[in-house]
Amino acid sequence: MMSARIGLGSVTKRVAFAPAIGRNQTVLRTLIPKRGVQIQSLPPSASEEILNAQRLKRPSSPHFTIYQPQLTWFSSIANRMTGGALSALLYGFSLAYLVAPDTFDSAHIIEFVAGLPDYVKYAGKVLLAAPFTFHFWNGLRHLSWDMGKFLSLKGAYRAGYAVLGATAVSTVALVLM
Questions:
Q1: What is the pLDDT of residues 129-139, one digit of tens each?
Q2: Integer Cα distance of 156 and 137 in angstroms
Q3: Is 120 helix (H, G, I), strand (E, B) or coil?
Q4: How far apart are CA 154 and CA 71, in angstroms?
Q5: Cβ(167)–Cβ(134) under 8 Å?
Q6: What region, left, alpha or beta, does residue 7 occupy, with left being phi > 0 and alpha being psi -120 to 50 degrees?
Q7: Contacts made by residues 21-25, CB under 8 angstroms, sequence distance 24+
Q8: Which pLDDT score, from 0 to 100, does residue 78 have?
């Protein structure tokens, strides 16, 4: 009576009246005949020949150079490159500071940079600011994608051009500081 009130009546009826072979999966496994698999041992050279023959039968994937360049894959590649370059710079400076803390302290770096000509300072600022700002803005673009924004093709291109514009403006702002 209680099972009928909470909606379990049909479920209990199906289980009670189901055939025993359907309820017991081990019985099914023993009734279905198994197919034998023959295994033979091969020398390493033979397995390599089989692998090479299989590779020859595979279709070759087109290289990315046959496609028209697109903003989405340029920005993806640039984001990875800027992230790797900024990480390498951070870890390189950190390791240099650990190895020679007296040479790479703030006072020596400021003194070294102060002695450089202005065009070298500005070039250095651009080389540091451009990857940093691009990686920052493109990271915000990826976060917006994670939130479900700008996922259409038009939205992805709008966000991509916004990243390029914001990168240019913020790079100039950082260089002129």
A1: 999 999 999 99
A2: 14
A3: helix
A4: 11
A5: yes
A6: left
A7: none
A8: 95
The Cα–Cα gap between 161 and 157 comes to 6
pTM of this prediction?
0.63
Question: Is residue 70 exposed (0-12), middle (13-18) or buried (19+ Cβ within 10 Å)?
Answer: middle
CA distance 161 to 149: 15
Give the tokens for residue 146: 């994670």
* Sign of the Cα pseudo-torsion (70, 75, 78, 79, in order): negative
Distance (Å, whole) CA 29 – CA 12: 25
Angle at 144 between CA 130 and CA 138, to 5 degrees: 15
Q: How far apart are CA 52 and CA 1, in angstroms?
A: 68
State phi, psi for 39 to the nearest 5 degrees: -120, 135
Instruction: Give one word for 68, left, alpha or beta, with left for phi > 0 and alpha for psi -120 to 50.
Output: beta
